[in-house]
Design brief:
Strand content: 5-15%
Order of helices and strands: HHEHHEHEHEEEHEHEEEHHHEHEEEH
Bound molecules: pyridoxal-5'-phosphate
Number of helices: 13
Largest sheet: 7 strands, mixed
Helix content: 40-55%
Strand order of the largest sheet: 2-10-9-8-7-3-4
Radius of gyration: 21 Å
């Protein structure tokens, strides 16, 4: 979305109908916030942006220059880079997954992977199991297919409730797939404990439905050694979705899928219909970058620095908001999930917070059903210590305004 975007709906009167789902669809919370968060002077904890100050820009510039100088086909249409697929296959070892480059399909960010997989696995009106809060990008992908959605509780500490999945299956629900993040779920940051992961995968195997594992934040763990990806327990029933967006840079738009052969076979045709191929220059530049800059070193820097910024946010929250809200310390990922008393309205708080110069995402936009209005999501990586401290201070002032308004009513 560009800064020059105008609201085109007011420019021309509607002269022809759009499809039924498009007519019903609304701008996503993320789209709305992209516009708002660019306001000068506003401190934004709203979007899940990686730390721009840690992007390896100099090294990446050298990699781009190198691939362009070496071969003009860096600007050509091209099938996915074999080198990149081999690199990703090796990287998957860090998530406990053993695979080779034939198991890897390169996508334009993991968002495209979610889009392709939804089309591949879900018929219109089909059944789907999701966590009660869901990454909005998944929601926008499945909406046109109007699935029947079965939601399962999820928690900021332990992620999806595996017992609740089992209970649904006992009731006879047979989903086209189950979508979840086992590690640092967006928005709550929950992490499924290591000993429940295999049980969850076996539920998929025994009831014969695939688990789509979105591991966008799986490499960003802070507390212990990373817990194994769900894919490490089953090659046949778990489809893994990964991305360089959070461990290198999102503008590269390079993500991937690790999937069983009958899924991999269908993905190229579907992808061709969407964007023909993933930008060759991006793929080659990522390979050139990785050849001379070990990713492990960069990820170690991100883990150390993000963990520090997380702690700064925790201290600021403790100092300013502990009497009104609760939260868990995220052991991975880039989000903090705050819960206020049940009658609190985070949507109303946002209006007051914007007036104070700070933005966040109200939690209600993440709920698939039974919307709860008393929660919100903060993101901490893309802010300096001072900005985090000032932003939380402003948020506390907005909470004070909220209480004063409530008392006046
Ligand atoms: C959980 C999750 N999945 C997927 C994505 C899409 O990321 P990308 O398309 O940049 O790989 C995001 C982006 O924030 C995300 O939070």
């Amino acid at each position: 979305m560009s800064d020059t975007d105008t609201d085109s709906s007011t420019a021309f009167p509607a002269s022809f109908p759009l499809s039924a789902w498009a007519t019903l669809s609304q701008r996503s919370v993320l789209q709305e916030m992209l516009k708002t968060a660019s306001r000068p002077g506003l401190i934004s904890f709203a979007l899940g942006l990686p730390a721009a100050d840690l992007f390896p820009t100099k090294e990446f510039a050298a990699s781009v220059a190198e691939v362009l100088a070496r071969d003009p086909r860096a600007l050509q249409y091209e099938p996915a880079s074999r080198d990149l697929r081999a690199y990703v296959a090796a990287l998957m070892g860090q998530r406990g997954v053993s695979c080779d480059e034939r198991d890897v399909f390169v996508t334009t960010g993991s968002q495209q992977a979610l889009c392709l997989l939804s089309k591949l696995l879900l018929d219109p009106g089909g059944d789907l199991i999701l966590e009660e809060t869901v990454y909005p990008g998944l929601r926008s992908v499945i909406e046109p297919l109007r699935p029947r959605i079965w939601t399962v509780p999820t928690s900021p500490r332990d992620g999806i409730d595996v017992d609740a999945i089992e209970a649904l299956l006992k009731r006879g629900v047979r989903p086209s797939f189950l979508y979840l993040s086992a590690e640092a779920q967006n928005p709550m940051a929950g992490r499924i404990p290591a000993d429940r992961r295999e049980r969850l995968v076996r539920l998929g195997e025994s009831h014969r439905f695939p688990v789509v594992e979105d591991d966008a934040y799986g490499f960003l763990t802070y507390e212990d050694s990373a817990r194994p990806a769900l894919r490490s327990f089953s090659d046949g029933w778990v489809i893994y979705v990964g991305t360089f967006s959070k461990i290198l840079a999102p503008a590269l738009r390079v993500g991937w899928v690790v999937a069983p052969p009958h899924v991999l076979e269908k993905l190229p045709t579907l992808k061709e219909a969407g964007d023909i191929d993933t930008v060759t220059l991006s793929q080659r530049a990522v390979c050139a970058f990785l050849a001379s800059n070990p990713l492990e070193t960069h990820i170690a820097v991100l883990r150390r620095e993000y963990r520090r910024r997380r702690d700064v946010m925790m201290q600021a929250l403790d100092a300013h908001l502990s009497s009104v809200a609760t939260w868990s310390v995220p052991g991975a990922g880039i989000f903090v999930w705050l819960e206020f008393p049940p009658d609190f309205d985070a949507g109303r708080l946002l209006t007051l917070a914007l007036a104070r110069g700070v933005a966040f995402l109200p939690g209600q936009g993440f709920f698939m059903e039974r919307e709860r209005r008393n929660c919100l999501r903060l993101s901490f990586p893309n802010c300096s210590d001072e900005v985090i401290q000032e932003g939380v201070r402003r948020l506390a002032l907005a909470v004070g305004d909220y209480r004063a308004h409530s008392e006046l009513r």
